[in-house]
Design goal:
By secondary structure, this protein is α+β, with helices and mostly antiparallel strands. The chain is 46% helix and 12% strand.
Length: 192
């Protein structure tokens, strides 16, 4: 115990003799501790600023969360899948989610005149049946009228809408009838 008190007395005597040096060391230690603690705050601020800049300059479509599932809306398990996806999205990203838009697209169909064989040419006309939530909010009807859901089930009859340029290039007119064929098996639909 005597050795410790002797060393302590010696340190105090030397410190008092070199007060200016001791005060410089104490100030330097305090400043380095403050600097080291502010580096964490500074790096967080730089990271947040970089993220804000990236999100502000990104294309809105690239910022969207896209979830892709396979299914058919007419089959009962589609609703279960859709509810599962909604639940997972709410659990993981509920606070940052804004608007949700559901979009669906069928397999590729090849349009032909009724009773005609499907052409083998790679440039043959192709079509998809699609749906999208809130389509009316994002499109403008130039001419004609939007299709409505069929009231009766007398046969697979589909009403469709298309862009003016697509109609002109394909030669469609109002009440054009076509047959949709998919993967060699015929799926009959009269497109009007």
């Amino acid at each position: 115990m005597g050795t410790v008190t002797t060393i302590l007395r010696m340190v105090i005597r030397r410190s008092l003799a070199n007060r200016r040096l001791l005060s410089t060391v104490v100030v330097g230690v305090a400043m380095s501790a403050a600097l080291m603690s502010s580096v964490v705050l500074y790096s967080d601020a730089i990271r947040d600023l970089g993220l804000r800049h990236t999100l502000r300059n990104a294309d809105p479509l690239e910022r969207n969360i896209r979830v892709i599932i396979s299914g058919r809306p007419a089959v009962p398990d589609y609703q279960v899948r859709r509810e599962t996806v909604e639940r997972v999205l709410d659990g993981h990203a509920g606070d940052i989610l804004g608007e949700r838009i559901h979009y669906g697209r069928s397999a590729t169909f090849y349009l032909t005149e009724p009773g005609e064989p499907v052409p083998e040419d790679e440039g043959r006309p192709r079509a998809h049946f699609q749906f999208a939530d809130k389509l009316e909010d994002h499109t403008r009807l130039v001419e004609g009228r939007l299709p409505v859901a069929p009231g009766s089930r007398r046969g697979p009859r589909s009403k469709c809408s298309s862009g003016r340029r697509q109609r002109r290039s394909s030669g469609w007119r109002s009440a054009t009838r076509s047959t949709c064929t998919r993967s060699g098996a015929r799926t009959w639909s009269r497109l009007r």
